[in-house]
Amino acid sequence: MTNEQKPAVVVPKEKAVFRLDKNGVWHIGDEKFTNQNIINYFHSIIKKDKDGYFLEQEHSSFIEKVYFPYEDTPLFVFHIIQNKGLLLCLNTGKRMPLDPEKLFVKDDNLYVRNDEDFIKLNADAMRILAEYIEDADGQYVITIDGERHLIPKDE
After folding, report:
1. Residues 122/24, Cβ–Cβ less than 8 Å
2. Which of 7, 9, 29 is nearest to 17 (CA)?
3. β-pair partners for 10
4. Edge-to-edge strands of the sheet including 26-28?
């Protein structure tokens, strides 16, 4: 068995037939994806390199790398596990502990910074996190493990 690297076929985002909207929903043309297995698969193969975000699929004789358009960010928190702290479950399948110091509000949406990436919390994740957040005179504050953290606005 050889250990040769397969050639890559790169599709630029301008030629991608699918896109990700501002709520983390996949579309092809004007239609939303409806097959949950395909939706989950697309989210699970999101990767990033110096040229941006793409979906990568290995085929028998090549690797397909499709850069795709997205409206806001390609990364979302779809669920939060409340157990010994808060664990963020991302659309990619990855999990990360919530660091309240990395939260910020932009355009009435809540995000978390992860290095240079911004991860947007979807409505389900926001419902879970809402029990930890209060409005203190127009400024949001989150309380985790008895500590209060100001959530800044990113203008």
Report:
1. yes
2. 29
3. 65
4. 18-20, 26-28, 31-32
* Residue-level pLDDT at 83: 84
User: Structural domains in the chain?
Assistant: 8-67 (3.10.540), 76-151 (no CATH)
pLDDT band per the 50, 70, 90 thresholds, residue 21:
very high
What's the pTM value of the predicted model, to 2 decimals? Answer: 0.90
Torsion 80-86-87-88 (CA) sign: positive
Can you tell me the distance from the alpha carbon of 24 to that of 121, in angstroms, rounded to the nearest whole number?
10
CA distance 2 to 17: 34
Average pLDDT of the segment spanning 136-143: 89
Q: How far apart are alpha carbons 106 and 130 in whole angstroms?
A: 16
Q: How many Å apart are CA 70 and CA 21, to the nearest integer?
A: 6
pLDDT at 1 over 50: no
Token code pair at residue 151: 């959530």
